[in-house]
Design brief:
The protein is mainly alpha-helical and 152 residues long. It has five helices and no strands. It is elongated and about 50 Å long. The chain starts with a helix and ends in a 15-residue tail after the last helix. The protein binds protoporphyrin IX containing FE. The site of protoporphyrin IX containing FE (HEM) has 25 residues, from α1, α2 and α4.
Length: 152
């Protein structure tokens, strides 16, 4: 697949991840505060968030290979000393994969929990940590050297 198309999809999909993340976090926070049952709506919000994150990771991995970032490992000293190279070959990938793992663990634990309060609480904590990590690893336009546009 053409990697400009992949990059465009990856850039747009970031907004779906952020919106679904905020939605899932809001749902679990309201569920906890208002002592709501864990309804199919709460489940749907979490599913949309998880699905968008997984899809973004798969597209990211394809992009990583297609754009040759893995080759930066051949010269580790140069890569780690250069902000742009280090961000794209190491920080973005590891930060985002870690965020996806945290979100997935939260989803699994929340599903397994029996008490509804615990279901909401676990989702709230893990999803919030995961989303904050995602926010920190996005190449926002204001970030020196690595900044990219908000839309492709
Ligand atoms: C929720 C997870 C992720 C989000 C929100 C995200 C977001 C972004 C954004 C906004 C860009 C800039 C797009 C542009 O230039 O217009 C980008 C680029 C990129 N991302 Fe991600 N990303 C995520 C996960 C990943 C993962 C897991 C990988 C790799 C395994 C990855 C690899 C890349 C690569 C290779 C680029 C392009 C760098 C280049 O120009 O060559 N991303 N990502």
């Amino acid at each position: 697949m053409d990697n400009t198309l992949l990059l465009t999809v990856h850039s747009v999909l970031r907004w779906a991840v952020l919106l679904f993340g905020l939605y899932a976090i809001t749902k679990s926070a309201r569920g906890l505060l208002h002592k709501q049952d864990f309804t199919p709506n709460h489940n749907m919000a979490a599913t949309l968030f998880i699905a968008s994150v997984h899809l973004q990771v798969v597209i990211g991995l394809l992009l990583y290979v297609a754009r040759g970032w893995a080759s930066s490992f051949a010269n580790m000293a140069e890569t780690m000393g250069n902000t742009t190279l280090r961000f794209w070959s190491v920080e973005h990938v590891f930060g985002m994969v870690l965020a996806a793992v945290i979100i997935q663990i939260g989803r699994t634990k929340s599903k397994k929990a029996v008490e509804t309060t615990r279901k909401h609480k676990i989702a709230l904590i893990y999803f919030t940590i995961g989303l904050l990590l995602i926010l920190a690893m996005i190449p926002w336009p204001f970030r020196a050297d690595i900044g990219r546009s908000l839309w492709p």
